[in-house]
Design a protein that fits this description.
- With about 230 residues, this protein is mainly α.
- It has helices at about 10-40, 60-65, 80-90, 95-100, 105-115, 120-130, 150-165, 165-185, 205-220; strands at about 45, 55, 60.
- Strands 1-2-3 form a three-stranded antiparallel beta sheet.
- The longest helix is centred in the first third of the chain and has 30 residues, at about 10-40.
């Protein structure tokens, strides 16, 4: 008598429930990020030396008007500021898709995006992933265009799968922090960059810089041998 192996497929209802729970947890984490950001930015400010004019919760008047707010900046509702930040610095640059794979990396990109522009943050991710792909052994180089698309997400998936999520996240975070520190030091103004949007620079130079920073992070946190020249 032949025996038949039984297989178990998780019911679709449970799969949907797992997805809903995961999304709820990510929403809670985003709420925490936004609350911390708004508390840090403070309330209404109208400094004469600030060319951007009055701000409230870190939102400039121009940005508020562009998103439909018509009231006095001093009275900008906190909920409106939260909605603007979520739309501009989370959903539009697709950091929510990064969060599905790595909430820690998404939080770092969000913070960098608020300070330097979401396109800059996305470019840092693309440069770091390219620098850490072991000369295209793990996945193809990415074009640092500052747009999170299918290729960037696939590269991130491959990186975390090959390196292991915990160690891979740590390596990637160190590379992102190094790129941000270098960009901040190289900023032409003595003032800290705030909410600027930018496109990627020279591919050759940017990738070379990213490779250098990523080697430092990889040497510290990763056991993979590097085939790149020092």
């Amino acid at each position: 008598m032949r025996t038949r192996e039984l297989s178990y497929n998780q019911p679709k209802r449970l799969v949907r429930l797992d997805s809903e729970i995961r999304e709820a947890l990510l929403d809670d984490e985003l709420d925490s990020l936004l609350d911390a950001l708004i508390d840090r930015e403070g309330g209404y400010v109208n400094h004469p030396a600030d060319k951007g004019g009055p701000t409230c919760f870190g939102i400039t008047e121009g940005v508020a008007r562009a998103h439909g707010y018509r009231g006095a900046m001093r009275q900008l509702p906190r909920a409106e500021a939260v909605a603007i930040y979520k739309r501009l610095y989370w959903l539009r640059p697709r950091f929510d898709q990064i969060a599905l794979r790595s909430p820690r990396v998404a939080a770092e990109l969000f913070d960098t995006g608020v300070n330097m522009g979401p396109a800059v943050a996305a470019t840092f991710l693309q440069r770091a992933l390219t620098a850490l792909n072991r000369n295209t052994t793990d996945y193809a180089d990415l074009t640092p265009d500052g747009r999170i698309g299918a290729q960037t997400l696939a590269a991130l998936d491959a990186f975390l799968r090959i390196r292991g999520k915990a160690s891979g996240e740590q390596v990637l975070l160190r590379a992102l922090e190094a790129l941000q520190a270098n960009a901040t030091c190289a900023w032409p103004s003595a003032a800290q960059p705030t909410k600027r949007s930018s496109t990627a620079g020279s591919r050759t130079g940017s990738v070379s810089a990213a490779r250098a920073f990523a080697r430092v992070a990889s040497a510290t946190f990763c056991d993979f041998p590097s085939r790149r020249s020092p």
